[in-house]
Design a protein that fits this description.
This protein is 38% helix and 20% strand. With 284 residues, the chain is an alpha/beta fold. The protein has a single domain, classed as Rossmann fold, CATH 3.40.50. A seven-stranded mixed sheet has the order 3-2-1-4-5-7-6, sandwiched between helices. Helix 1 crosses helix 6 and helix 7 runs parallel beside helix 10.
Length: 284
């Protein structure tokens, strides 16, 4: 599938999530009885976190809590890749305070509309939301202190470019903190080619070593996995849809169990070096 087709497919799917109010990573999980709040609590957010954001900002999207691990400080500028309705952006804004600033970037107009409405309703003046693709960030070189992202980079058709852009946007010494889905084992072709599972953060995921390699390849140092758990596939695609996909795959029960265990949520931290010796003039 071409990059443009993937972007269109993801934009359509997450536009639907924005309009229907969300629930988990995919558009189909709301039939499982989970709520956005229960999903988020299971991902490491606290009741206090949920109370800090405007109503409607938490759509239950994501696979971790990057804000909790980013060690944000007063006055910092934070860039949120794939900001959705603004949940992580608003939490980051609480931590950087009125002297800090948060920029959320999302390519889905419906999500941007929702995030901007949430900011206005909540009176959040230190947060702004910009339309853009995470492969081509609408921010200046070396202009932010921290880049965060939550279960979004796996949706990109060009992940190395996303990390290069994050590196470009960070000031020397700046920090990257992402939660994302990676793979502990290759996916069957039927799963890899599923549009539903691509939108659900699974089919587009990379093997963990490859994912970490792209971060290092962009120029980041101190690349560390700060947490890793098997991510229940039932949290990101509804049981009927999942059953239909699995029924079309020639796997025994052991193979199906192995498939589910291969989908992993990781929390990864990295840093842009404070000094650059590559001859790029400080822009790499």
């Amino acid at each position: 599938m071409k990059k443009e087709e993937i972007h269109k497919q993801v934009r359509t799917a997450y536009g639907q999530v924005a309009r229907q109010g969300g629930c988990g990573c995919s558009t189909g999980c709301c039939g499982t009885g989970m709520t956005a709040e229960s999903v988020s609590l299971g991902l490491g957010y606290s009741e206090e976190d949920l109370a800090q954001v405007p109503e409607g900002a938490n759509l239950g999207l994501g696979c971790g809590n990057p804000v909790a691990l980013a060690s944000l400080r007063e006055g910092e500028v934070v860039l949120d890749l794939g900001s959705g309705a603004g949940f992580d952006s608003f939490l980051a804004a609480e931590r950087v305070g009125p002297t800090g600033r948060v920029i959320g970037v999302d390519m889905t107009p419906d999500m941007l509309d929702k995030a901007r409405e949430n900011a206005k309703r909540g009176g959040r003046t230190n947060v702004e939301f910009r339309l853009g693709e995470i492969e081509h960030l609408p921010v200046a070189d070396a202009s932010v202190d921290v880049v965060i992202s939550n279960c979004v980079i796996n949706l990109s058709p060009d992940k190395p470019q996303v990390f290069r852009e994050a590196f470009r946007a960070l000031r020397p010494g700046g920090r990257l903190m992402v939660s994302d889905i990676v793979l502990a084992a290759p996916l069957p072709a039927e799963v890899r080619d599923s549009a539903l599972l691509y939108n659900s953060c699974v089919a587009g995921a990379l093997p963990k070593t490859e994912y970490l390699g792209h971060i290092a390849g962009a120029g980041f140092t101190e690349v560390t996995v700060q947490g890793e758990t098997v991510f229940p596939i039932e949290h990101i695609v509804s049981e009927p849809d999942l059953a239909a996909i699995l029924d079309g795959i020639a796997l025994d029960e052991g193979g199906r169990a192995s498939l589910k265990e291969s989908i992993v949520s990781v929390k990864v931290a990295a840093r842009r070096p404070a000094g650059c010796t590559c001859g790029c003039g400080g822009t790499r």
